[in-house]
TrEMBL record:
GO terms for biological process: poly(A)+ mRNA export from nucleus; protein transport. It comes from Capra hircus. Residues 64-78 have a biased composition (Low complexity). InterPro entries: GLE1, GLE1-like_sf. Required for the export of mRNAs containing poly(A) tails from the nucleus into the cytoplasm. May be involved in the terminal step of the mRNA transport through the nuclear pore complex (NPC). This is mRNA export factor GLE1.
Length: 691
């Protein structure tokens, strides 16, 4: 039927409508709820209805089309009529956003499995309710937006407060750090202040200490000066005493020498029949007197001025005694001569045989000169004690040569090599490096190994090596004097100081030096070799010190030059000592030997050209040291040379050999005029050793 078809369409339309999609709770009766209570009760307006009526509805009516306006008017009339149709969102386009917002706002409510039934109102009521809901939604959205803005503001405030707190914390940290800096600065200022105060106190203490030290130094300097003054006085006293003692020794030596001359006069006693016992007795008494003075002086320390005066008086008396003796012998000789002449006239033939002079077995020293006159005060032979000393040195030198004869004559290559190395080490020339050369020579002689020619050398390599080295070393020193000092006079002092130091530590080397020196320069003894019968002329010239090669004798100038070099070396050795040695020990061959040499050479007849040359060289090198050592006695010796010895030299010197004599005479006259012997050129002073 047609009506049945419409019925189904109607039901289908209802099912598709909003109401048909509503869910109904079938158990509402069981819960006891009154479904119709809301429909039966009077409609109630929301608390926002007034605001909606005043503000929202007029705005909606202005914007709504006429059809809806009429519809709204119709629905207004039915506002108070309830309806059982469930609420559904409006389909008006004007409210679609709101309904969508409402549906979004109430989405959580629709998610429930059963939707609560709502009381249907009239269209007007529903519109009003929709506006109310829309207002509430807008109010909630504004509230949410306000809340969000408030939250953002709060977050901004929180951030601002956090930043402010952070800045305040930074300022606090800065203030705290600044406070720490200020405290540290204050503490440092306090420490610096205390340090300055401490430094000031320290400087004050230092100034006080310096002041006290200055006072103490002044006192110490005064005490040291006083001590040095006392030591100087004691030294001067000792030097004066030693000088007087040495003078006494020289006086004793001269007295003994004069006593020997007195004893030698005994040969005239039987010949001349003269009693000379009184002279000998008085001479012995004078010798005993001088010996007693020296003995007492040695026991008491040093001789006094009175002792020296007594000894000089004894010497003068001895000289007078010897002079009287000679005069007595001269008178006796004259008387004997007269008696002999008388006997000769009686027995002419016998007297001629008796007066014939015997041939002299030994001739006098050559080069006496045409104007020389015999003098009984001087002699041509050396003293017996000096000659004995000279012979002992030559015998020691010969024994040393025999001691290393096996090494020198060995044909073994190893022995020859050792000999060459030892000779190189021993004959090292003395140059400017004195300390190094001395240490090397001393080490070699002490048995230590030294470097020579790139090889190690020692005297322990051969039993005869030490004798060989000592002999060659002494020979080398004398050869340097003969050659180097002869050409350069200043070289005598460095060679002499090394030789003196080695002599002090190794006395045998010193004895060998003297043996070589005496052999090459016999005038250093002093010794004038005599020409003996049967002796070859060349051998005699060699004994005098001349060099003879191929029967040719060297020139006189060269001979004097070599003798001068060796005498200068000897004069330098006796006054110099090695500065690094033991100063407490005496010089092994000191100035007393120089004084003895000078006294003995003046007691001998001069030689033409030789004596003047050697005296000049000796006094120029050693005169200053002898002057300081012997003082008054030295000047007496110089006056003796000028007054007594110069005429003797001049008498035997030819006109072509006057150069050395004039040089000696001018030198001594200048020294007497200045009353001082100058320091020799090249002398090694204390500044030399410091440099």
């Amino acid at each position: 039927m047609p009506s049945e078809g419409r019925c189904w369409e109607t039901l289908q339309a209802l099912r598709s409508s909003d109401k048909g999609r509503l869910c109904y709770d079938r158990d509402w009766l069981l819960r006891g709820e009154d479904v119709l209570q809301e429909c039966m009760s009077l409609p109630k307006l929301s608390s926002y209805s007034g605001w909606v009526v005043d503000h929202v509805l007029p705005h909606i009516q202005k914007n709504a089309p006429p059809s809806e306006t009429s519809a709204s008017s119709v629905s207004t009339s039915a506002l108070n009529q309830p309806s059982s149709v469930p609420r559904s969102p409006l389909r008006n386009p004007a409210f679609s956003p709101v309904s969508s917002a409402i549906s979004n706002g109430t989405k959580d409510k629709h998610e429930s499995p059963h939707t609560e039934p709502m009381v249907l109102q009239s269209p007007r009521g529903m519109k009003v309710e929709g506006c109310i809901r829309m207002y509430e939604l807008v109010h909630r959205m504004k509230g949410a937006e306000g809340l969000r803005q408030w939250q953002e503001e709060q977050e901004k405030k929180v951030r601002a407060l956090s930043e402010m707190a952070s800045e305040q914390l930074k300022r606090f940290d800065e203030r705290k750090e600044l406070k720490h800096h200020k405290e540290f600065q204050d503490l440092r200022e306090v420490m610096e202040k205390s340090s300055r105060e401490a430094l000031g106190q320290q400087e004050k203490l230092k100034a006080e200490h310096r002041h006290r030290a200055k006072i103490l130094n002044l006192k110490l300097r005064e005490a040291e000066q006083q001590r040095l003054k006392q030591e100087e006085q004691e030294r001067l006293r000792k030097e004066e005493g030693q000088a007087r003692l040495r003078g006494l020794y020289a006086l004793q030596e001269e007295v003994l020498h004069l006593s020997q001359q007195l004893d030698a006069s005994d040969q005239h006693r039987d010949l001349l029949q003269v009693d000379l016992s009184a002279f000998r007795t008085r001479g012995n008494q004078l010798c005993s007197l001088v010996s007693g003075i020296i003995r007492s002086s040695s026991e008491n320390g040093f001789p006094t001025v009175e002792d020296q005066a007594v000894a000089e008086g004894a010497l003068q008396e001895m000289r007078d005694l010897l002079s009287n003796l000679r005069q007595e012998i001269g008178r006796a000789c004259e008387e004997k001569r007269r008696r002999d002449e008388e006997e000769a006239r009686i027995k002419q033939q016998e007297s001629q045989m008796q007066q014939r002079p015997e041939a002299h077995k030994e001739s006098p020293i050559p080069n006496q000169g045409p104007g020389a006159k015999p003098n009984e005060d001087l002699q041509v032979k050396v003293q017996d004690s000096t000659m004995q000393w000279y012979q002992q040195l030559q015998e020691a030198s010969s024994r040393c040569v025999l001691a290393f004869e096996g090494l020198s004559s060995s044909r073994d290559s190893q022995a020859k090599k050792i000999k060459m190395d030892l000779q190189k080490a021993a004959t090292i020339p003395v140059s400017s490096k004195l300390k190094e050369i001395f240490d090397k020579i001393h080490s070699l002689l002490s048995g230590k190994a030294v470097q020579s020619g790139g090889r190690s050398v020692s005297v322990t390599l051969n039993p005869q090596a030490l004798d060989f080295v000592q002999y060659k070393l002494a020979e080398k020193f004398v050869k340097q004097g003969e050659e180097e000092v002869a050409s350069h006079h200043e070289a005598a002092f460095p060679i002499a100081v090394v030789a003196s130091g080695i002599w002090e530590l190794h006395p045998r080397v010193g004895a060998l030096i003297l043996a070589h020196l005496h052999k090459k320069c016999p005038y250093s003894v002093p010794f004038y070799p005599a020409f003996k019968e049967g002796m070859a002329l060349e051998d005699y010239q060699r004994m005098l010190g001349y060099q003879v090669k191929d029967s040719k004798v060297e020139q006189q100038d060269n001979f004097l030059k070599r003798m001068s070099g060796m005498i200068r070396l000897y004069a330098a050795i006796i006054q110099l000592r090695w500065p690094y040695g033991n100063r407490q020990e005496t010089h092994p061959h000191g100035l007393n030997h120089g004084w003895r040499w000078l006294a003995q050479i003046l007691n001998m007849e001069p030689l033409s050209d030789v004596t003047a040359t050697l005296l000049f060289d000796f006094l120029e090198v050693c005169g200053n040291a002898l002057m300081k050592q012997y003082q008054v006695q030295f000047w007496k010796m110089i006056l003796l040379i000028k007054e007594d010895y110069f005429p003797r030299i001049e008498a035997i010197t030819s006109s072509g050999q006057m150069g050395s004599f004039i040089r000696l005479k001018q030198f001594l006259e200048k020294c007497l005029q200045r009353r001082e012997i100058p320091v020799p050129k090249g002398f090694l002073t204390s500044s030399f050793w410091r440099s």
